[in-house]
Amino acid sequence: MADLKPRMPLESLLPMEASGVRVREVDLGALTLVMPYRERDAALSDALEAAQGLRWPEPGRMTGTTGRGILWFGRAQAMLIGMAPEGGLEDHAAVADQSDGWAVVEIEGDRAAEALARLTPVDLRPGVFEIRHTARTELGHMAASLTRTGKATYLVMVFRAFAHTLVHELGIALQGVAARGGR
Amino acid sequence: MRLDGDGLIDRTRRLAFTFDGRKHLGFEGDTLASALIGAGVKVVARSFKYHRPRGIFTAGSEEPNALVTLGRGPGQEPNARATTVELQEGLAAYGQNAWPSVEFDLMAVNDLLSPFLGAGFYYKTFMWPKAFWEKLYEPVIRQAAGLGALSREASTERWERAFAHCDVLVIGAGPAGLMAAWTAAEAGADVILAEEDTRLGGRLNAEVEEVDGQAGSAWAEAMQARLRTMENVRVMTRTAVVGAYDQGTFGALERLEPGRALKGCFWRIVAKRAVLAAGAIERPVAFSNNDRPGVIMAGALRAYINRWRVCPGNRVAVFANSDAGHQTVRDLLAAGVHVSALIDARADAACDLDVPFYAGGQVCDSGGRKALESVSFLHRDRIETVQADVLAMSGGWNPSVHLSCHMGARPVWDEGLAAFVPREGAVPGMRYAGAAMGMFSTRECLESGAAAGKAVVDDLGLNGAEVPVPKAEDGVYQIKPLWHVPGKGRAWLDFQNDVTVKDVTLAAQENFTSVEHMKRYTTQGMAPDQGKNSNVAALAVLADATGRGIAETGTTTFRPPYVPVPIAAMGAGAQGKGFSPERFTTSHDASIGRGAPMIEAGLWYRPSYFPKAGETHWRQSCDREVRMVRDHVGICDVSTLGKIDVQGPDAAAFLDFLYTNMMSALKVGRVRYGLMLREDGHVMDDGTCARLGERHFLVTTTTAAAGQVMRHMEFAHQVLRPDLDVRFASVTEQWAQFAVAGPMSRALLEDVLKQDLANGDWPFMACGDVRTKGVTARLFRISFSGELAYEIAVPARHGAALFDQLVAKAEAMEGGPYGMEALNVMRIEKGFITHAEIHGRTTAFDIGMQGMMSDRKDFIGKAMAARPGLMDEDRAQFVALKPVGTVKELIAGAHLFAPGAEVVSENDEGYITSVAFSPMLGHVIGLGFLERGRARIGEHVRMVEHLKGSATLCEVVAPGGFDPEGGRMRG
Amino acid sequence: MRLPCPICGERDRREFYYAGHAVALERPQEGAGAEAWDYYVHNRDNPCGETRDLWFHESGCGAWIVVTRDTASHAVLGAVLAEEAAR
């Protein structure tokens, strides 16, 4: 019998591009949700630094990169991206594999923030939402994680099952940007 | 008629358009109104109630008369104000509220009936007989009244919604707004400057005056260019701020220029500070027949002359109670238009203009039919008449205080200005500037704009160089309050809703003396224009009629939106797939591929059944799938059930607090059914709890309640038991999970997993990790069908492949996939509950699970569930029903009565929650709740359903009639 | 309406779920009388002025927060994490 062929959440739905804004699926590799136990934050951060060379992020921030980093993911939790949860993390935190739970896209282009402003109530002004800032918020009625990863690059994560709706909503937003013509 | 000169239109670009089918020409930069005036069209609309002919009255969004319908078909837009519609090539506009046309309207018969149609007419006339209202009066009134109509076709117009954030929102880009925005921007604030018009400048585009040594409109254009170069400024033209809401949130309607693929955008703007610089609206004076086409506001006439180079006639009379009259005459003379009279209500006014001048005069009537021909006025106790085809009037200016009142504050009456001004601090963080606060000279506007800009940046703690205030004309606003000139005929206040002075005085006579009562009795200010140019005069008339002052009379409530907002804009993006998100399982494509109709379960989509060739009715498919599972094996995607991973030293204690039963006593590698209550003692959700490790559990919830349970668990932890060291997260999306159910399920999975699943290692309610094809999976021996069954979970990326392989294997064993219908039938055969039963009003006692409420610990809902009323034997208890008479139909939602009892609510003994035809038992089964039901097994009850008119005699039976001992499940 | 999440900062109201008065923090001890439970589960004041209520930052960080606000002016006066208020 054949292997269990893996399938990415947005396979065959992306990429798309409009008004110079490109949307593509990103494979972040291993995603591990880490939730420190009570009063273990410091010990956890030390363990992470020892094992991975990365500190536990402040709320609303990311340490490292989307290739290998730690993304704040809500109250008392962060997502390890692109690394195995090594170094005895279980002693300090609850750990849950989320590698398959999220549809992840990168939105890139000068008008990316303009498109996102059609979907999220978060303040995306460049001076407010800086590079490596991250927010848990709504994106067109979907709970989402939104991170600014570059000058005009954003990482958006929604539940895997929302993949079609994510593409639909981003498509509509991009049409809205395009309908206004150049700025 | 079109005047010479360019104004602010582009004479080189002609635009052809039609009004009521007749072709006209206008220019780039025209509004539909200015183009119609240019084309000499006088009657553009019929009034709401009396169908009076009406002409263009203003030059802005306050326009009460010139409502037109744009286009035909799906994109048809009714009630567009011609004064704000940008002219474009090919525009087709139509008059509305008239038949056959606005020029000749048969409904104008209403005007002759006006003595009978005054205030309160509907309330007094259509009272009896009561039955006539719905069948006769309402349809007739609806046919006769109203404004434009929709096409009744699905709209093809696209709108969108978006969010914007800034430090300072400046509302209005006249001289005050421009200065406020510039000042704030120079100090480094992020500024949004929102302007309703297509260009910045406000009245500077309408008046002949200089700012900074150049034409006002040129200065505004230079300012626009300057602001557009600043990174921290966002200039939003065509954008009306329509509402002020809590914590600095504003709603704004942006209309894109014509010809875009998008009509516009409904913005939610969040601003730390706001400057209201929305200007002022000129108000008319009420006199007999003041609504005749040709009567126009003086400020609007100046705008038409100066900006658009059009004039609605060639003999103009001017009537004012301030210097506005003189200003208008100057502009008319400069444009070469004949002025037949300047009538100034101020007795002490002087005039050095070469026109017939009447100080202390008051216009008291207009002559003509569908167009103005003469103006009569009272001067030195005599009535005089002059020939005029245009009357420009000004009764003074009302500051646009609207947005300052949206959070409940009332404006303040300023005696000197004879107008309401915004109340300080009415909207937190909002300051005022310019005409919106009663500063009517350009110099005052510029200065107050700069001051407001400075004040908001000070509030924000920003420092910036002050910007120089340009030189501009100053003037003193001297006004003699004048609201109403007495006379014989009807004098209009609210042009849009046809409310006259007489209506307001009648309301006062009939004791509707409160301004809010008067408004509702007369409909004053209740039309789409919300009485922008008439409310203040109406309450002045009411104040007069009741012998009170205006301040004491007060204003009605100003509510959003400031200008009408299409529902299509507010609801943008919410049609079709945008209505709500869709959640698809990993087997979605496979289910669709097999022709399964999908059914919504919360946001999820699940297959109802998998039709096979030859099956023409869902019941055939469903019955086959039930037999397939019971005889062989079936595969069902159960990934939609909520899965919550719970870990930590106190995980077991936490689950004990959540569930009624003891999860701490559960062995590692075992699963237990559990019940969660709300704190009020009613059942919230049920599901399974698997112990994966000493400190590690996996909780499942029903599909529908997954979000609610997660929220409840966070509440229980963060609010009630923060002392417990436990962490949890939803892993619903991480795992694709499939039920493998039926007598062949063990053989199927043993083949897939290449391992032994005999009862010894894998008894009923066991769980643990297994491996298949190099992938670690989780296996649970649980059953919702009552068969020998398992659920296997793999990381979601493998879900699609695993589903295909499981189905292929099942099909080789005469099995296959099954859907929600079969799943539902099997659980009803087994008497298993879903949210149809635990619907929020049932207790553990009601469903017969009172034994699951542990007395060895506290848990949420324990105390309240123990209330005597919730454990009463008389309560409706969970039972099953089967028909025993000739009628075999059971209906979910139907109620239960003792046989022979009268069908009245006092005799209601219960209701049916779920119904299915059981192919195994060969009859319909109902689940439901019946008073004292558990003690009534074997008795007969009667199901009565009024909608279908059904009545069925049933026997009360114990739930779970199929394999009651559960031998198949444990097998 | 905007609420100041102690973790995320000021956010739009749509990200939050409303759960009523903060009296929910004061769960009676096991064995408390019927009156105490009745008050806890059912009885709520309806103040004109300052009040404290519970909100869940459901599509945000997942924190339950206690918001102090004024029901008359709609002013939001502050917010703390419920887990801290509960301790």
Automatic annotation (TrEMBL), chain A:
Domain of life: Bacteria
InterPro entries xrefs: TrmE/GcvT-like (IPR027266)
Name of protein: Sarcosine oxidase subunit gamma
From TrEMBL, chain B:
Domain GCVT N-terminal: 588-853
GO terms assigned for molecular function: sarcosine oxidase activity
Gene3D superfamilies per record: 2Fe-2S iron-sulphur cluster binding domain, sarcosine oxidase, alpha subunit, N-terminal domain, BFD-like [2Fe-2S]-binding domain, FAD/NAD(P)-binding domain, Probable tRNA modification gtpase trme, domain 1
Keywords assigned by UniProt, alphabetized: Oxidoreductase
Superkingdom of origin: Bacteria
A Pfam match: Fer2_4
UniProt xrefs under SUPFAM superfamilies: Aminomethyltransferase beta-barrel domain, FAD/NAD(P)-binding domain, Folate-binding domain, Nucleotide-binding domain
Every SoxA A3 domain range: 488-573
Domain Aminomethyltransferase C-terminal: 894-943
Gene Ontology biological-process entries: tetrahydrofolate metabolic process
Listed PANTHER family: AMINOMETHYLTRANSFERASE (PTHR43757), AMINOMETHYLTRANSFERASE, MITOCHONDRIAL (PTHR43757:SF2)
Family, similarity comment: Belongs to the GcvT family.
Name of the protein described by the UniProt record: Sarcosine oxidase subunit alpha
Organism: Roseovarius atlanticus
UniProtKB/TrEMBL annotation, chain C:
Transmembrane segments: none
Domain of life: Bacteria
GO BP terms in the entry: tetrahydrofolate metabolic process
Protein name: Sarcosine oxidase subunit delta
Coiled coil (residue ranges): none
GO MF term (any one): sarcosine oxidase activity
Pfam family, one: SoxD
InterPro entries: SoxD, SoxD_sf
